[in-house]
Amino acid sequence: MQDAENVAVPEAAEERAEPGQQQPAAEPPPAEGLLRPAGPGAPEAAGTKASSEEVGVAEAGPELEGEAPGEQARDERSDSRAQAASEDAGGNEGRAAEAEPRALENGDADEPSFSDPEDFVDDVSEEELLGDVLKDRPQEADGIDSVIVVDNVPQVGPDRLEKLKNVIHKIFSKFGKITNDFYPEEDGKTKGYIFLEYASPAHAVDAVKNADGYKLDKQHTFRVNLFTDFDKYMTISDEWDIPEKQPFKDLGNLRYWLEEAECRDQYSVIFESGDRTSIFWNDVKDPVSIEERARWTETYVRWSPKGTYLATFHQRGIALWGGEKFKQIQRFSHQGVQLIDFSPCERYLVTFSPLMDTQDDPQAIIIWDILTGHKKRGFHCESSAHWPIFKWSHDGKFFARMTLDTLSIYETPSMGLLDKKSLKISGIKDFSWSPGGNIIAFWVPEDKDIPARVTLMQLPTRQEIRVRNLFNVVDCKLHWQKNGDYLCVKVDRTPKGTQGVVTNFEIFRMREKQVPVDVVEMKETIIAFAWEPNGSKFAVLHGEAPRISVSFYHVKNNGKIELIKMFDKQQANTIFWSPQGQFVVLAGLRSMNGALAFVDTSDCTVMNIAEHYMASDVEWDPTGRYVVTSVSWWSHKVDNAYWLWTFQGRLLQKNNKDRFCQLLWRPRPPTLLSQEQIKQIKKDLKKYSKIFEQKDRLSQSKASKELVERRRTMMEDFRKYRKMAQELYMEQKNERLELRGGVDTDELDSNVDDWEEETIEFFVTEEIIPLGNQE
Amino acid sequence: MKPILLQGHERSITQIKYNREGDLLFTVAKDPIVNVWYSVNGERLGTYMGHTGAVWCVDADWDTKHVLTGSADNSCRLWDCETGKQLALLKTNSAVRTCGFDFGGNIIMFSTDKQMGYQCFVSFFDLRDPSQIDNNEPYMKIPCNDSKITSAVWGPLGECIIAGHESGELNQYSAKRSGRAAPSLPLHSSPCPTSPRKALFTDFPPAFSLQLFDSTTLEHQKTFRTERPVNSAALSPNYDHVVLGGGQEAMDVTTTSTRIGKFEARFFHLAFEEEFGRVKGHFGPINSVAFHPDGKSYSSGGEDGYVRIHYFDPQYFEFEFEA
């Protein structure tokens, strides 16, 4: 009980209880106690009475542990009551007797006197009473803010002191007027550090910012600090404190959607011109809605590369959502954010905002740690024209950025420059990471006599594994195959002695020694190029509208590049390979009215030719089973819809959505199956397909059964209604007959008897035109 | 089957109508000509000349003796069908938007636009009393204060007319001398009436749909959804089918291609509300559609000024929904 009391009863209460029991008239008032029995006799009694009341209250405290705060509040109230009573009594000794009963009757005496008793000793410091007011009290400037400390100053004897002072003065008076200086000396030499005082603290700050790190000579680099910072650095503990552990937040299974029994995929849909965002399960019959929210994002959404997070854009930053209920997982505050990019490992997020960048605090591009939500580093950025500015290596270990004549490669998690320096590559035009290894490819254009060059560089060793020189180059484009097995450099050239541009496809075989290169040349205009993901084929759209052809090439093991097939007269301007390869959709988007061709490249057959009029986008699902074409409100204002097709080009659904904007499939992480397992599955495909076919049949017959059922009920209702209407109609037969003078006109032939035969001749003019004079 | 193209108008078609037997087809347009055609081969039988403005509406009585037309030249005219002689000229204060004979062919009705400071009125004349026509004194004239009538048809047995207002309301007006009757329905846009049987249609722009009502009780029955405005609709006399005509609004047509405009006649099943067929052809929105009374053909008149008579292919009659 004693322990409990100590915990819950305010100390003051205990102390206050004392005077009553011990008659402490002569004793000095307890240090903290607010109750001050000032004189003997009556005030004492008042005090005793009041405090004994409080004891009762205070004792109740421990029994009502749960309500401690309320209890305390009551304590305080009775404190002031008691104080008021005692003060009142003490101040008017003559009327003490009067005061007593009043104080006894009701604690809160109606007219307390606030003046102190004559022998009152103030035991409360001013800070304690009105610390908050005193804090703002005007203070003398001690000038300490304007003082800086400069370290690493040369140590000189008195003979050269004057010279040193001159040099120092020259350097430091740039930032403001120096009003005072001090050169501590020891054994006739300066100590190597000096104090300078400026006219204003602003000058001192300026000096610290600009002169810190100033190189006086080889041995002496100034370190400049504010004098006031001394305190700050002094208090830093020499011991490293273990950071406090953050409680673990269970976000549930962020990859739950992969466990769906039917292996369905999810996609996000933005519609009503961006006001509403929905997430659906893709289903052959009808999409199944999972989540729909109004104003979920202000512009658009992005999925992270493995599908774990959904990023929404807001004026104040980015929010990430995930888990089964799409709860908010993380927020990144970046005012006016416009563009984002995830690292391929989903560990980092890069955000870009055109606002907020200042000279000394780079904030145009911020790299965030997704798990902790902390800002890792900010960067300056002049233009976002070529987003992403930072390109990530496939494993997220490195990221690189290109500026004029330099390529800067940074490493994670330090976010520092790799080997502390950028690569100097004069004239660098473009670069790109291999998706299959830490290899970077970049190219530089021709410069007078030096030919254009494509370089492949291994990182972090910076070893150049392949350099290829090219001549008469106009432009280069780097296309990596998805696994990083091949690199195609599309080179636009103007060879000497010819007119116009010739395109060379320089195919680098990355998996072979020395990285051999083969070339395919094309004289026609190239509209699009795309590698087959997971394969060794590529497709090229070439020619001038309306004579556009598509060519499929195959890179053989021996390096030969073989034209498999060419289709001419295509209506296409974009190539969309299935993410699993083999199948491809050639689309004529926007200006080409949305023509679609579904091609199987294993035997190069066109499986279907279709059209989604005015389609603006084509999106394959991550498994390559379905493909969606859509007309986005962002590019076209009517007929906004998305259509779902099978990979063979069979139309499954037409989903009209009011002002539909964008559909994005939720990506899947790479498969966990080994190559052997995949092979095994492919071998046993027949076994599986039987099961799936049966499932499909079942669900199909169920669906058609439902439809038929629905129609049947509708028909029944309709028949009922019609029967009623017809009965009414029959009832009115006599009235009808009457109205039409007894002629029955209910049926077209119900008044056959009244018919008069009328023959109408249709005049057919016959004209004979002789076929010229053949004689 | 290839449609029969009727080129008898210089301006957009406003209304087309078969007579009761279906051998004749009356067409009116935004030019002053009223045409009548043989529906069987599309040969023009004749014209009714006299109007001096766009003709908004046409109707023939049950035995095809008389033809009634209403025009923007502020007149409603009665013609002898066979001879083309103008029998009566009823002057009005504003354009005549709708007109019609009652079931028995004895009473005519027309409504005028709210225009040039004049109210919208529905007027009723009894042809059996020649003095009414001679003096241009209808036996009943009902003012419509709130919103003008955009379309009107006679109810069964000619007891009342059912009118659709610009505001989207649907009202019944009794043709007996008592004025407005029966319930009024708040709807959304211009109704386009058809069908002698038992239905009314309205077009309802936010969602672009066609709605079907019972003509006696004005109870809502069915909704047919489209993605373009619906201007007109007709019920098949012998199948549970309904044909819808419409398309992108005329004012937007010049800025959109034919394919975006969806100037198609669309066929829906009456009970299932499901679309089962489309007929292309017009290069402007369809303003009026009509079923031949034998159900073997239908016609459509478009903003492009053409009337097309379509005879159904055999597949149409064989088609059935799985149910």
UniProtKB/TrEMBL annotation, chain A:
Residue ranges, compositional bias (Low complexity): 32-61
InterPro entries according to UniProt: EIF3B, eIF3B_RRM, Nucleotide-bd_a/b_plait_sf, RBD_domain_sf, RRM_dom, TIF_beta_prop-like, WD40/YVTN_repeat-like_dom_sf
Subcellular location: Cytoplasm, Stress granule
Principal subcellular localization: cytoplasm
Region (Disordered): 1-119
Keyword Repressor part of the UniProt annotation: no
Protein biosynthesis found in the keyword field: yes
Domain RRM: 146-229
UniProt entry keywords in alphabetical sequence: Cytoplasm, Initiation factor, Phosphoprotein, Protein biosynthesis, Repeat, RNA-binding, WD repeat
Comp. bias (Acidic residues): 107-119
GO biological process terms on file: formation of cytoplasmic translation initiation complex
Annotated Gene Ontology cellular component terms: cytoplasmic stress granule; eukaryotic 43S preinitiation complex; eukaryotic 48S preinitiation complex; eukaryotic translation initiation factor 3 complex
Post-translational modification: Phosphorylated. Phosphorylation is enhanced upon serum stimulation.
Biased amino acid composition, Basic and acidic residues: 95-105
Pfam families documented for this protein: eIF2A (PF08662), RRM_1 (PF00076)
Gene Ontology molecular function, alphabetical: RNA binding; translation initiation factor activity; translation initiation factor binding
HAMAP family cross-referenced by the UniProt entry: eIF3b
Domain note: The RRM domain mediates interaction with EIF3J.
Job description of the protein: Component of the eukaryotic translation initiation factor 3 (eIF-3) complex, which is involved in protein synthesis and, together with other initiation factors, stimulates binding of mRNA and methionyl-tRNAi to the 40S ribosome.
Subunit structure: Component of the eukaryotic translation initiation factor 3 (eIF-3) complex, which is composed of 13 subunits: EIF3A, EIF3B, EIF3C, EIF3D, EIF3E, EIF3F, EIF3G, EIF3H, EIF3I, EIF3J, EIF3K, EIF3L and EIF3M. The eIF-3 complex appears to include 3 stable modules: module A is composed of EIF3A, EIF3B, EIF3G and EIF3I; module B is composed of EIF3F, EIF3H, and EIF3M; and module C is composed of EIF3C, EIF3D, EIF3E, EIF3K and EIF3L. EIF3C of module C binds EIF3B of module A and EIF3H of module B, thereby linking the three modules. EIF3J is a labile subunit that binds to the eIF-3 complex via EIF3B.
Similarity field: Belongs to the eIF-3 subunit B family.
Name of the featured protein: Eukaryotic translation initiation factor 3 subunit B
Organism: Pongo abelii (Sumatran orangutan)
UniProtKB/TrEMBL annotation, chain B:
Statement: the UniProt record of this protein carries the keyword Cytoplasm: yes
Pfam families for this protein: EIF3I (PF24805)
GO cellular component annotations of the record: eukaryotic 43S preinitiation complex; eukaryotic 48S preinitiation complex; eukaryotic translation initiation factor 3 complex, eIF3m
GO biological process annotation, one example: formation of cytoplasmic translation initiation complex
Gene label: EIF3I
Assembly notes: Component of the eukaryotic translation initiation factor 3 (eIF-3) complex, which is composed of 13 subunits: EIF3A, EIF3B, EIF3C, EIF3D, EIF3E, EIF3F, EIF3G, EIF3H, EIF3I, EIF3J, EIF3K, EIF3L and EIF3M. The eIF-3 complex appears to include 3 stable modules: module A is composed of EIF3A, EIF3B, EIF3G and EIF3I; module B is composed of EIF3F, EIF3H, and EIF3M; and module C is composed of EIF3C, EIF3D, EIF3E, EIF3K and EIF3L. EIF3C of module C binds EIF3B of module A and EIF3H of module B, thereby linking the three modules. EIF3J is a labile subunit that binds to the eIF-3 complex via EIF3B.
Keyword tags: Cytoplasm, Initiation factor, Phosphoprotein, Protein biosynthesis, Repeat, WD repeat
Gene Ontology molecular functions: RNA binding; translation initiation factor activity
Sequence ranges of the WD repeats: 6-47, 48-89, 279-309
Post-translational modification: Phosphorylated by TGF-beta type II receptor.
Protein name: Eukaryotic translation initiation factor 3 subunit I
Family, similarity comment: Belongs to the eIF-3 subunit I family.
UniProt signal peptide: none
Coiled-coil features, chain-numbered ranges: none
Main location: cytoplasm
Entry keyword annotation includes Mitochondrion: no
PANTHER family: EUKARYOTIC TRANSLATION INITIATION FACTOR 3 SUBUNIT I
Function statement: Component of the eukaryotic translation initiation factor 3 (eIF-3) complex, which is required for several steps in the initiation of protein synthesis. The eIF-3 complex associates with the 40S ribosome and facilitates the recruitment of eIF-1, eIF-1A, eIF-2:GTP:methionyl-tRNAi and eIF-5 to form the 43S pre-initiation complex (43S PIC). The eIF-3 complex stimulates mRNA recruitment to the 43S PIC and scanning of the mRNA for AUG recognition.
InterPro entries, alphabetized: eIF3i (IPR027525), WD40/YVTN_repeat-like_dom_sf (IPR015943), WD40_repeat_CS (IPR019775), WD40_repeat_dom_sf (IPR036322), WD40_rpt (IPR001680)
